[in-house]
Amino acid sequence: MKKILFAVSAMTLLMAGMAFAEAETPVVDQRQMNQEQRIDQGIESGQLNEREGNRMNRQQERINKMEDRAKSDGVMTKRERARIGAAQNRASHHIAREKHDRQGKRHR
Length: 108
Prior knowledge:
This protein has helices at residues 2-23, 26-45, 50-71, 78-99. With 108 residues, the chain is mostly helical.
């Protein structure tokens, strides 16, 4: 009886570990961190004005919430990863476009 109980416990822990490992998203997390650094750098350098920076930070928050919802069940599916990746692509394009437009700090 103890052997069966031990085997069931071990299998449960193994399955939980597999689900947790699948929910880890180092690539998504690193990309989010890079984009947030790009926004901060743009604000500091004057390439982004306050309004643009706030808008992009809100966009990053929405992507973080998407990621949290996707991880909530312990598994992030390929479809969820693709959706988050597409949102990150749009955000990255938006950051680049706003950093290189003619707005920003006005030099007088």
